[in-house]
Amino acid sequence: MCATVELINADGSNRVSLTSGMGGCEGQPAFMPWGGIVYEHFDFAIEDDGIWGMNGSGGSEHHIISPWPNGAGGATDPNVSLSGQLSFVGTDFSLIGPTDPAQALFGSDLAGNGFHELLPMNLDLGVKDDWAPDGKHIVLTTNANLFDPTRTANIATIRPDGSGLHYLTHYQGADVKALVGSYSPDGRYIVFRLEDHGLYALMSMRADGSHVRTILPFSTFRPRGIDWGPR
After folding, report:
1. What is residue 15's DSSP assignment?
2. Mean pLDDT, rounded, for 5-26
3. Closest-CA residue to 51 (of 110, 117, 125, 118)
4. Cβ-proximal residues to 124 (8 Å cutoff; 6+ apart), any chain
5. Which CATH architecture has domain 6-219?
6. Of 114, 140, 167, 200, which residue is most buried, by most CB within 10 angstroms?
7. Where are the domains of the chain?
8. Are the C-beta atoms of residues 165 and 158 closer than 8 Å to each other?
9. Three-state SS for 32?
């Protein structure tokens, strides 16, 4: 048994396993705007780490795309825009930085067609990214693993075609990092984790990077996999 995708009610009740975890691991699930689910699936037998999809009740599981089969790399954190464009983070295991392999952002349609690079490996993307509810931008983190030791992890947005990289945070120094979570359902705010010399805070800001405020103050508690629930 390995990691599985599970569905529960918002109050923690009615927990249901949507995948079995037999022969592989599943994780990083995200809802499609119309209710289906995309997720990462790693197959132990063929060492394939790809993006899969299923309906909202766990049926009709199907493979979407595996950019690097046979253990050459991985794909994780799939997200789907309102128009049906898939974005996901890809890892190249041949490029190792100070702590982790390099990561880039890629896209395709929901059939796995039109595979293309949105942002390159040398930008060292964080695992988490998110589509703005109107589909006009993707929010993400660059230099997440400090591949460039002269810069730190900061939050930026791009257009759906990968152009227009625009930074929302401008922290400096390797001991201070901003790592994105997600947009609010109305697209007005972004939630993120701020790291400062070994302490962690949960923060929010407006979608243009202004009006930064604290949700959870700095402590040793490290928020991860941050997402904003429906309104």
Report:
1. -
2. 76
3. 110
4. 97, 102, 103, 142, 143, 144, 145, 146, 147, 148
5. 6 Propeller (2.120)
6. 140
7. 6-219
8. yes
9. coil
Q: Ramachandran region of residue 213, left (φ > 0), alpha (ψ -120 to 50) or beta?
A: beta
Alpha-carbon dihedral angle through residues 131, 74, 173, 217, given to the nearest 10 degrees = 60
Helix, strand, coil tally for the chain in percent (to 5): 0, 45, 50
pLDDT (0 to 100) of residue 20: 75
- Say if residue 13's pLDDT is above 70: yes
Amino acid at 133: P
Q: How far apart are the first and last CA of the chain?
A: 35
Q: How many CB atoms within 10 Å of residue 12?
A: 7
Structural Rg of the chain based on CA atoms: 17
Buried b (16+ CB within 10 A) or exposed e, 84-114: ebbbbbbbbeebebeeebbbbbbbbebebee
In the three-class reduction of DSSP (H, G, I as helix; E, B as strand; rest coil), residue 48 is classed as: strand
DSSP letter, residue 122: G
What pLDDT, on a 0 to 100 scale, did the predictor assign at position 215?
95
Burial (CB < 10 A; 0-12, 13-18, 19+), residue 45, is: exposed
Q: Is 205's pLDDT higher than 80?
A: yes
- At 39-86, the pLDDT tens digits run 998 888 777 889 999 887 777 888 999 877 666 678 889 999 989 999
Both tokens assigned to 190:
């972004």
